Amino acid sequence: MREQNKVFHLAIPCKELDETVDFYEQLGCELARRYDDRVTFNFFGDQVVCHLNPESIDAKPQMYPRHFGITFTDKKEFDQLLMMAEKNKLPFFQEIMTRFKGKQEEHITFFLIDPANNLLEFKYYHDQTMLY
Fold first, then answer.
1. 49, 42 Cβ separation under 8 angstroms
2. What's the whole-model pTM score?
3. pLDDT (tens digit, 0 to 9) for every residue of the chain, 132 residues total?
4. Which residues cross the membrane (predicted)?
């Protein structure tokens, strides 16, 4: 398990800072810092830095293999985020679905797409032993 003193860091491209801030704040992420060339967020307890780099935007993103997100251990929190995304009309890349139905690793998941075509996955495993 991760200790409290460790924070995962992810850097991704963005094409425009204002729309990036708007998207991630509507997702419930707190803006930590803003510079002329990047914004940093508290992304559910981890650090996501969006670097202004419009020429690096993936024009045709695909779910696999490149995406990132959160695996919830509390179904209520998963449901709350899903409702917030729907309420704020955040763009879904993939609506909620069940993967590996009937198997031990069965989970529910949905994907959002940010303004720079970065794909974000949010999921919840019914069997918590399958988190890793």
1. no
2. 0.93
3. 566 778 999 999 999 999 999 999 999 999 999 999 999 999 999 999 999 999 999 999 999 989 999 999 999 999 999 999 999 999 999 999 999 999 999 999 999 999 999 999 999 999 999 988
4. none
